[in-house]
Specification:
47% helix; 222 residues; 2 domains; 4 strands
């Protein structure tokens, strides 16, 4: 016997005036998915089913406090959901993602601190890159345009990792150490993201996915 896990993501975009219609439509769509799964001998895991309203802070108070009704079970709206390892909050501020990333990175750094004296610097640096920087770089394209206060929280992780590698005190400057490691700071890692550069290049030369053309327009200097 085999056990298969299928993750389905459903998104609906609507105007504020069509709130009731969208809520009804989301109920019908969710139940249609549940019925299809049942007809194919699959079971919808209601415990892992999440629903979230995305709106500005000013609009949040006007949204319903209940989620869609799926097979006689109400799904309570969540303030943040996880999709492919990225935490998305209802205000699309990425605060939840930054908070989770910073918390997990510092937890790893605390564990690595216990073995710092037992391994060479080059080996320890490789551990930092694999276990800490990989978390900072994961899906960094969605962090473009992040507020300065959230960028600084991510930068504090990189600074702490650099100080741990070279055993630098907090009173000492961190920039020379970052340069010696050939590490870009967090703002540059986000803005100069290789993935964003490739997507932009393909869009300019007409080889990007077709769905991007309706959302991106080239800007030419005057």
């Amino acid at each position: 016997m085999g056990c298969h896990h299928i993750c389905t993501l459903m998104t609906l975009r609507f105007m504020a005036s069509a709130l009731h219609h969208t809520w009804t439509c989301s109920c019908h769509c969710a139940n249609a998915v549940a019925d299809w799964m049942r007809s194919n001998r699959l079971q919808l895991n209601s415990d892992k089913t999440e629903f979230m309203w995305c709106a500005t802070v000013r609009r949040q108070h006007s949204l319903p406090t209940v989620g869609p009704l799926i097979r006689l079970s109400n799904v309570t709206p969540s303030s943040a959901v996880r999709d492919l390892g990225v935490y998305i909050d209802s205000g699309l501020t990425m605060q939840s993602h930054v908070r989770q990333t910073v918390s997990r990175c510092f937890a790893v750094l605390r564990q690595l601190r216990t073995v710092r004296r037992q391994v060479p610097t080059s080996v320890f640096q490789s551990h930092i890159v694999a276990l800490v920087l990989s978390r900072l770089d994961y899906c960094k394209g969605v962090l473009f345009g992040l507020p300065a206060n959230l960028v600084q929280r991510l930068q504090s992780v990189q600074n702490a990792a650099t100080r741990l590698i070279f055993r630098i005190r907090r009173s000492e400057h961190i920039t020379p150490a970052l340069i010696s490691l050939h590490w870009l700071r967090i703002p540059e890692r986000i803005i100069l993201s290789f993935k964003l550069a490739v997507i932009t290049y393909r869009f300019i030369h007409g080889t990007s996915p077709s769905y991007l053309y309706s959302h991106v327009s080239p800007a030419f200097p005057t």
